[in-house]
Amino acid sequence: MKIRPTIFIVTLVFAYTAHAQEDENFPPPESPPVVEAYRLKGNLSVDGRLDEADWQQGEPVTDFFRREPRQGGPIKYQTRVKFLYDNKNLYVGIWCEDSVGLKGLRVQDLRRDFSWGENDIVGVALDPQNLKQYAQAFQTTPYGNQRDFQNFNGNVYDGGWNTLWRVRTQRDSLGYTAEFSIPFKTLRYDMPEEGQPVEWGVTLVRYARRDIEVSTFPAIPQSFSPYRMTYAAKLQGIEVPPPSANLRIEPYTLYQYDQIMEGSSTEATGSFKLGGDAKWAINPRSVLDLTLNTDFAQADVDRAVNNLERFNIFFPEQRQFFLENSGIWAGSSQQSIRPFFSRRIGLQGEFNAAPAPIDVGTRFTQRTEKQAVAGLYVHQRETAVSSAANFGVARYLRNYGRENNVGVMVTHRYNETSAALGTSANNNTTLTVDGQIRPTSQWDIQY
């Protein structure tokens, strides 16, 4: 076995955003605005009409801040938002005004997980653990398309993440309304200490495509993501149920029958395939994923791309096993160097995109206010053209200051000896150190 030590190039990325007006990149407020949620008193039908008496409780959120097309100034498209809850769900009611009603709405299609900019959009982002660096976002269109994703540090975006929630919308001459139902078991939160109120981070965003107007609550500078949770308001008044050890098991079985006919002879074979996935939310901050004899048939198909360059294309991860808290593995930025790219697992070779079966895999992630820890192990089965392989990844990320972090990651791949292929065992190991420093709201240093 040959040992080939490699020294990686250290890359620094400096991002500085400056504008003519000194106040365009204002810092987060010392005292964030407060939003009240009210307990549901009667029955609620999630139909998008928002006509139940409970929706008349309290004052709505109305003071949205215009980000685009020009930061600041009066908002053309007014928005009102209220929050309700019961023992199982958090409800968000949103009234989106449009002076020309139905004629002003812009929606291209009804597919899930649409891209930003294609449709009119309204949504909410939640930080139930008050980490200030993590958000679960839920968005919809006037016709009820669902879009959900995770955001890390305001710049790492995971659109492949999907969870359980509902939304219904209605359209009329005044614009449209949206009614969200987000189960508490979908959210990761801690129980507050006795006598302490629940305080979740929350931001709201609306995109009116007709005039490219983007507005947020609370005010977030145009230069930053609407999901930078250091600017978030406080959502108060919720009496949350105790978080449960949420366990989800998805078994499957497949039967394959082949029949080959040659002349008068017939040869038939059949085989069963059993396997499944399991996700265990051990506590609000820790999640364990297991997979056995994995079947990725439910994952979305990649879009067709003609690649005329000599570099690989980084298709987004669509497989559920790899998705939750995927931002922990991304390093300081998902747009630069990627020491770990999960799409390489389950392929027969670097230049062979044919899938390779996965026998077993386990994945653990934990995210707290001060640190993030993650580990992964996958065993890939031998095929006719590739030997069996073992993948291992370990990640540690430490947060310090307001929006700074430093992390280390080790990746290891071990290809087993294959007598059938005539290959000997070999391995590859990488060590990565990365981080992010934000000395002020204008500066973002990634290394």
| CATH class label of the largest domain | Mainly Beta
Q: Unreliable runs, pLDDT <50, ≥5 residues?
A: 6-22
Taking Cα atoms only, what radius of gyration do you get, to the nearest Å? 25 Å
Instruction: Please give the CATH architecture of the largest domain.
Output: Sandwich
As a percent range, the share of strand residues is 35-45%
Largest sheet: 13 strands, mixed
User: What overall geometry do the principal axes of the alpha carbons give?
Assistant: globular
What's the average pLDDT?
A: 84
User: What structural class results from the helix and strand content?
Assistant: mainly beta
SS element count, helices: 0
- Structural domains: how many: 2
The first-to-last residue Cα distance is 33 Å
Number of strands: 25
Order of helices and strands: EEEEEEEEEEEEEEEEEEEEEEEEE
Helix content: under 10%
What CATH calls the topology of the largest domain is Immunoglobulin-like
